[in-house]
Amino acid sequence: MSLYKESGVNIEEGYKSVQLMRQYTEKTFIPGVLNGLGSFAGMFELGQGYKNPVLVSGTDGVGTKLEIAFKMNTYDTVGIDCTAMCVNDILCHGAKPVVFLDYMACGKLEAEKAADIVKGVSEGCQQAGCALIGGETAEMPGFYKEGEYDIAGFAIGVVEKDEIIDGSNIKSGDVLIGLESSGIHSNGYSLVRKLITDLDEEFEGKKMGEVLLTPTRIYVKPVLDLLSKVNINGMAHITGGGFIENIPRMFKNKNHRAVINKNSYEIPSIFKELMRRGVKEEEMYNTFNMGIGFVICVAREDVNKIMEILVGHGIVAHEIGYVDENEGENICLK
């Protein structure tokens, strides 16, 4: 064996994938981007509009939801998921996402599929208002099965130091507002895949696989608008760990607890279907977002204004609970 290609790595396919990706990355370029795809590193200039900027970073992947994408031969939606999981996280501290990088690994590179993934990443970046300034595609024959990919992302945002949201302003009596999710998002799929094995099964007029691939909602633009108009005391992205793990993460003062009214909104049918297939309610709230993808904590007097702003962004939200004193638990579901 004397050629790299004979070992399973096709450099020409890599060149082709970069050319296909370029059309999508360039759609995300915003003021501050200093170079394009193909450099050794991406560069971004923050500019002069900040007094004391703090960089906020986050990284995440899509997880086993990818297996459904492989089986459905659909790749662009998971790119949106990859972006969403990262930008929604850094948003929780009040940061505006500015740059994004992605990493893909595969057994055999197929340029069109790789470009489809980046197309989704690009769409996610456009929804979040950040620039896709670089990435890496690793072809590793024998390590990954042919036709399978892994994808992860890395986001950097910026916030003024005195505007960081860290939960220190949360007080008893604050209201918890839940912003609806678009579905299961990107957590709990190891359990989902055990419960749902027929992706062609019809569910509410669609194939089940299509329902499960609904991309994660990106909350950046509506929440940044809220931050510019009202005070937000805390925020939580409802990812792995569901309500039970993620909502209390917004509390800096551990003497607080979240009281959640489970009947404050209609649980989406896909979650009811998972319960019908055998998942207990407590496990659901400790695994899935249950129809609420993002939670904000605000003063009672700001609730109506916040709801109006969210409606203007097409976001359905619900008053799902409140904050009170910790009574031996950091969250209460009732």
From TrEMBL:
In terms of superkingdom, the source organism counts as: Bacteria
Show the catalytic activity.
2-formamido-N(1)-(5-O-phospho-beta-D-ribosyl)acetamidine + ATP = 5-amino-1-(5-phospho-beta-D-ribosyl)imidazole + ADP + phosphate + H(+)
Q: Which Pfam families match?
A: AIRS (PF00586), AIRS_C (PF02769)
> Where is this protein localized, as stated in its record?
Cytoplasm
GO biological process: one example? 'de novo' IMP biosynthetic process
Which family, according to UniProt? Belongs to the AIR synthase family.
Can you say what this protein is called? Phosphoribosylformylglycinamidine cyclo-ligase
Q: What is the lineage of its organism?
A: Bacteria, Bacillati, Bacillota, Clostridia, Eubacteriales
